[in-house]
TrEMBL record:
Alphabetical list of Pfam families matching this protein: Longin
PANTHER family: SYNAPTOBREVIN HOMOLOG YKT6
Subcellular location: Endomembrane system
Protein name as catalogued: YKT6B protein
PROSITE patterns given in the database record: LONGIN
Database matches in InterPro entries: Longin-like_dom_sf, Longin_dom
Source organism superkingdom: Eukaryota
Organism: Ceuthmochares aereus
Membrane topology: Lipid-anchor
GO biological process: endoplasmic reticulum to Golgi vesicle-mediated transport; protein transport
GO CC list: Golgi apparatus
SMART domains attached to this UniProt entry: Longin
Residues of the Longin domain: 8-127
Length: 137
């Protein structure tokens, strides 16, 4: 069971943009990592774009499951995981991250924010904390 990506986006008018993201592409070949990360960013934006405000969904994309939560205020989160990762845990993580993000980052910064301008450092920690490490036997 593995998490690959955790993203916070803003569903504005007319388009969706990435505010902050964390990736774990360590299981991929070194030469594939940049393109895998780009794919995950693009997929996250596309799924949020196609989702309604106030909705939650799980979408299968290739061998991944993308869990999306778009709040009524336009703040959205996407977790990309493998097929084995529990859906309930993904949505609990998204609730926690979006609540914390909305408390720490001013709503006025969401429409114009980008990963370079938004100051929110907790995503890498959450991605690491929620990884399920397999025990070797």
């Amino acid at each position: 069971m593995r998490l690959y990506s955790l993203s916070v986006l803003y569903k504005g008018d007319p388009k969706v943009h990435l505010l902050k993201a964390a990736y774990d592409v360590s299981t991929f070949n070194f030469f594939q990592r940049a393109s895998v990360q780009e794919f995950m960013t693009f997929t996250s934006q596309l799924i949020v774009e196609r989702s309604e405000l106030g909705s939650r969904a799980s979408v299968k994309e290739q061998e991944y499951l993308c869990h999306v939560y778009v709040r009524n205020d336009g703040l959205a989160g996407v977790v990309i995981a493998d097929n084995e990762y529990p859906q309930r845990v993904c949505f609990t993580l998204l609730d926690k991250v979006l609540d914390e993000f909305s408390r720490q980052v001013s709503k006025m910064d969401w429409p114009s924010g980008s990963p370079a301008t938004i100051s929110y450092a907790a995503l890498d920690g959450y991605l690491s904390k929620y990884q399920v490490r397999r025990l070797r036997t």
